[in-house]
Amino acid sequence: MAKYKVFIDGAAGTTGLRIYERLGQATDIELLSLAENERKDLNARLAKIAEADITVLCLPDEASKEIIASAPKSAKICDTSTAFRTHSDWVYGFAELTGQKTKIQHATRVAVPGCHASGFIALVRPLIEKNALPKDTLLSCHSLTGYSGGGKAMIGEYQAKDRAEKYTAPRLYGLPLKHKHLPEMQTLTGLSNAPLFTPVVADYYSGMLVTVPLFTAQFNQGYQEGVAVHQLLADYYHDSLLIQVQPFGVTPDDNMLNANEYAGKDSMQIFVYANESQILLAARFDNLGKGASGAAVQCLNLMLGRDESKGLVL
């Protein structure tokens, strides 16, 4: 049986390494590679893109833009940077959105979602799409992530033997309120305004918990109770392989939600909590799984016609 040829440009980074490890175990995949001295050679990289059935870019934004500008338009490319996530010529790689799986299957250019954005979009897009929440609703979003989300540099800081005391406490970042995931968080949900977003990095390796707090009065008629919102989300993701909506109000971790519970998995859990006037939505997943390499492999599977969940840990 002929194997799919896959080229990972940027395989030495955190996301690239994870994708390489996953695909390296597949019997139907042949991984194309470059010699050490060719990794920054544009022509050598373009030759591999032309040879491959699909290429996964795991590069900084500007480097992705550079290679895309020269790559054949017919080449199938899956990009993990933020460069093309809201670009009109690219398909957004969140397969669970209505009609999105088919778009990914037929696309030559797919942008893998950002980790924080994945949780926010999973929670909010169905509410906007089903007219449960007005598009002009002003939302806030809190996201707790493990330090692997910061890449090799941040991993090195947190794992250093002589690290400073500050690394033991959670740290709020994105303080100018211009986080790079905000454009996709607004565009892919259909909101009129970007959310007020407060990301926090904490002293654990991987795992993510994204929460969106709401008041029942913010919802349209018919959705001003937690059970109604929960039912909407449960119906929306009913056929999803990777997203599971948990029972309404469930507290699985000693009346808490552990942010790293889904570390090592490629699926996502959604939770809904409520009282008489407030509703809390939460998405729990691995920032390196459904938030990065797992999502990239899912998109690659769909673009190649493989089983959607092949190589994933659910």
From TrEMBL:
<dbReference type="GO" id="GO:0006526">
    <property type="term" value="P:L-arginine biosynthetic process"/>
</dbReference>
<keyword id="KW-0055">Arginine biosynthesis</keyword>
<dbReference type="GO" id="GO:0051287">
    <property type="term" value="F:NAD binding"/>
</dbReference>
<feature type="domain" description="Semialdehyde dehydrogenase NAD-binding">
    <location>
        <begin position="5"/>
        <end position="105"/>
    </location>
</feature>
<keyword id="KW-0028">Amino-acid biosynthesis</keyword>
<dbReference type="Pfam" id="PF01118">
    <property type="entry name" value="Semialdhyde_dh"/>
</dbReference>
<dbReference type="GO" id="GO:0003942">
    <property type="term" value="F:N-acetyl-gamma-glutamyl-phosphate reductase activity"/>
</dbReference>
<keyword id="KW-0521">NADP</keyword>
<comment type="similarity">
    <text>Belongs to the NAGSA dehydrogenase family. Type 2 subfamily.</text>
</comment>
<keyword id="KW-0963">Cytoplasm</keyword>
<comment type="function">
    <text>Catalyzes the NADPH-dependent reduction of N-acetyl-5-glutamyl phosphate to yield N-acetyl-L-glutamate 5-semialdehyde.</text>
</comment>
<dbReference type="InterPro" id="IPR050085">
    <property type="entry name" value="AGPR"/>
</dbReference>
<dbReference type="InterPro" id="IPR058924">
    <property type="entry name" value="AGPR_dimerisation_dom"/>
</dbReference>
<dbReference type="InterPro" id="IPR000534">
    <property type="entry name" value="Semialdehyde_DH_NAD-bd"/>
</dbReference>
<dbReference type="Pfam" id="PF22698">
    <property type="entry name" value="Semialdhyde_dhC_1"/>
</dbReference>
<dbReference type="InterPro" id="IPR010136">
    <property type="entry name" value="AGPR_type-2"/>
</dbReference>
<dbReference type="InterPro" id="IPR036291">
    <property type="entry name" value="NAD(P)-bd_dom_sf"/>
</dbReference>
<protein>
    <recommendedName>
        <fullName>N-acetyl-gamma-glutamyl-phosphate reductase</fullName>
        <ecNumber>1.2.1.38</ecNumber>
    </recommendedName>
</protein>
<keyword id="KW-0560">Oxidoreductase</keyword>
<comment type="pathway">
    <text>Amino-acid biosynthesis; L-arginine biosynthesis; N(2)-acetyl-L-ornithine from L-glutamate: step 3/4.</text>
</comment>
<feature type="active site">
    <location>
        <position position="115"/>
    </location>
</feature>
<dbReference type="GO" id="GO:0005737">
    <property type="term" value="C:cytoplasm"/>
</dbReference>
